[in-house]
Every structure is written in structure tokens, then in C-alpha cells.
Amino acid sequence: MTLDLAKFLDDRTEYKDLSLRKVREGKTEIFVPDPASYVMDKTEYLPTSLPVFYNPVMEINRDITILAVRVYLDLFPYDGPVYYVESMAGTGIRGFRLLNEVGDDRLVVIMNDIDPKAVDLIKFNAEKLDFPSDRLQIYNFDANYLFLELRRRGLVPSIIEIDPYGTPAPFVFNAVRTLKGKHGLLIATATDTAPLTGKFPKAALRKYGCNLVKNPFGKEAAVRALLYMVGREATIVSKRIMPLFGFFIHHFIKIAVLVNRGRRQADMFWRSIGWVSFCPVCNEFYLTKGLGNFPQSVCDIPDHGRTDILGPIWVDPIFNIDFSRKMLEILDKSDNFEQGEKLKKIINWEIALANVPFFYDVQEIARRLHISAPGVNEVVDKLIDLGYRATRTHFNPRGVRTNAKIRDVVKIVKNIMLSRN
């Protein structure tokens, strides 16, 4: 990661053995380890070079949390305190932003980190910057121990966030057990994107219980596999997840799901689980619901042969329309989010055809045809003119999500390029 000091302010201080510098995100300022003191080479990976983990590139990840919590508090009003648990807080920037920017006095933030230096820094910022002590609790536990301790104390969080360095898989079960049983909100991030996109199938099986191989829609399949793993863990304790959104941005996947308790609810989860197969020759895909209903193993197009199978994965919509529209309303009214326009574009694309899974890669189609690729917007517009439903997708900048088949998209790509000659 190239070092960029643009977000770091001039205010510097020392605390214990930490050299600190103030940083601003949204409307919030806190002290973080000063990169000028710890990063000797601009090519170093900034977050792991600091004594307490801080990644400025993940500001958009934290923006999404602020949005999600604001919408959640609007849609599910509570009379008493609403406990939000950040189980791996690092510098605490996300939790402090929630306290400072959500604007709801019911919100109580529980920040936890296993690293004592991180906890010292969180306490320093809480005191130095005068965050409200009655709405902030700070712990120094392993994340799973924290969840079990909260259960022992009878404290039931409404919102839990899991944002590890790598996979959230080891923490999901205890998080779901601890979470409120009616309309609880679980937010999870995964940064081990290589197994989820099919690069390491054995690791994907171990961590997520999914057969994942390299495929034409790897990032979307990754989100659906993560949703499957979280939902499967929830059913063990008779809870059901309902996805609110699933982003794949930069090097991270971020999902949010509502969690409800009940055996019937948990059983309903499996109706949204299925399989997808794809043709490695033309990239057409075939999808089925139900663990016992495998998709077809041979492509419809003659001579293309056998398909490859992915799953089990979540096959229903990833983005909840109502929740997403509320996020858009907040983005339209606020200038606190540095990449707000990017988030609006992503959300609008994904809710346009939320019930249509997967997409086709225009550039890949053109490559197989041995022609230049037309613009993605041009292909989308042509599909709509012909009566199909179509939109772009953030899972691939060259992707077109549509109810058309691959052969229809191929014809359109051909015709667009022929019309230019």
C-alpha cells in the first residue's frame, strides 16, 4: 500500500510507547499511530507496519457501517439502549464515528480488541477527545470470549460487527448466538478473498463449506458463499439470516444480515440455498434451488460439454430493496461520506435487478469472438431496447446483469461492433 498522508492531520502526541497523529474520517477525529514514525518505506503495507492496526483505505468499509446502523435504527425503533459490539476494534475509529455521526442517544458502543495496545489507544482517544463515557464500554478479550462473556452477563446486543484480518468464519457462531433474536443485525467483513473467488478451493471448503473454483462471476459468487456460511451457522442455533446487502470493494467483502430466531425461520433459510453451474466455454450459467437439486451438468449449446459446479451458495437476492433505498436517502442528504457517490452508484446498480443472480462479462465475450469490446453501457441500453431487463454490476466493471441468455448478449455484442464497420 502506497503511503498517503493526506488524511493525517498535523496534531501529534506521545502516549505510553506510541507515537500518535490525528486523523479525520467523516466528521470524526481520533489519534492513530503516526505512519511517519513507523513506516520506513512508502511501499510497505501501512496497516501491519503500525503497532495498532489502522487501514485508511477501509474508510469506505466504515462508511457502510455508519449507513447500515443509521438505517437500522430508523427501521427498527427501540425504547431502550441499542448495543453495538465492535469485536475487533483496532484504533476504535469505527466505533467513535458511530458515536459521533449516527446522532442517536440510544446507541451504546462496545469496543473490544485482543491487543492491549489497541485497548490503551481506544481509552486514550475516549478521554482525550471527550467521547461520552456512558455510551462506551471497552474490553480486552478474544472476540469469541467477549461474545460468551456478554451472554453470561445477560447483555443482548442488537448489532454485532465482525471485521477480522482474514476470514470471519471462526467468530460467526458465537456472534449469532449472542445477537438479539428478533431483528438482530450482524455485519461481517472478509478479506481472504482468494479462497472465496475460487483460487484456493480446499481453503474455501475448510472455511466456508462451499465448492468454489475459478468462475466467470467470482466476486458475486464469493459474497453468496459468505452468506451461505453465515446462514448455515445461524441455523445451528435455530436462527435465520435475511441479507440486507453484500459489497465486494477493493480487497474486502462486507455483508449485513438481519437475524431472527425460530426453528421455522431457520428452516426457511435452506429454501434460499442452491447450486450454480457454468460452461467454461461460453460462460452460460444454470442455477437451481435446494441442496438436492443439482444444476445441469452439460451446457445447452452443442459441443460445449460439461459444466463446472459451485455451491452450496445463497441464490436469492443479496440486496434488500427497502433497506438499500433508505441508504440512498441518507447518502443523498449527507456529505459526510467521502465515497458517497461511489456507494450510490453501486446500490442503484444492484437493486435495479436484485432478483437476477450473476452476470456476463462483455469484454470476455468480445475476446472469445476475437473482436473489440463495445462499451458496457451500450450493451445494457441495447438489451433494454430489445425488451430485456439489464443493468451494470459493481462485481465486475465489464459485467452486465440481465435476464437474457448468453447467446442473446453475444448477438448484441456482435451487432454493435458490426455496425461500426
Structure overview:
The protein folds into two domains: 57-314, Vaccinia Virus protein VP39 (Rossmann fold, 3-Layer(aba) Sandwich); 321-418, 2-Layer Sandwich (Phenylalanyl-tRNA Synthetase, Chain B, domain 1). 39% of the residues lie in helices and 24% in strands. It has helices spanning 35-38, 46-49, 59-75, 93-101, 116-128, 143-153, 169-178, 193-196, 201-208, 218-236, 263-269, 321-333, 340-352, 362-369, 376-385, 406-418, and strands spanning 8-15, 18-25, 28-33, 82-86, 107-112, 136-139, 159-162, 184-190, 239-249, 252-261, 273-278, 285-289, 308-314, 360-361, 390-393, 396-402. Helix 10 (218-236) runs antiparallel to helix 11.
Kindly state the percentage of residues in helix: 25-40%
Q: How is the largest sheet built, in terms of strand order?
A: 6-5-4-7-8-10-9
Calculate the terminal CA-CA distance, rounded to whole Å: 43 Å
**Main sheet properties:** 7 strands, mixed
Using DSSP, what is the number of strands?
16
CATH-defined architecture of the largest domain: 3-Layer(aba) Sandwich
Q: What kind of oligomer do you see?
A: single chain
Mean pLDDT: 94
Structural class: alpha/beta
The CATH topology annotation of the largest domain reads as: Rossmann fold
Computed CA radius of gyration, to the nearest angstrom:
23 Å
The total tally of domains equals: 2
Distinct helical segment count: 16
**What is the top-level CATH class of the largest domain?**
Alpha Beta
- CATH homologous superfamily identity of the largest domain: Vaccinia Virus protein VP39
Approximate shape: globular
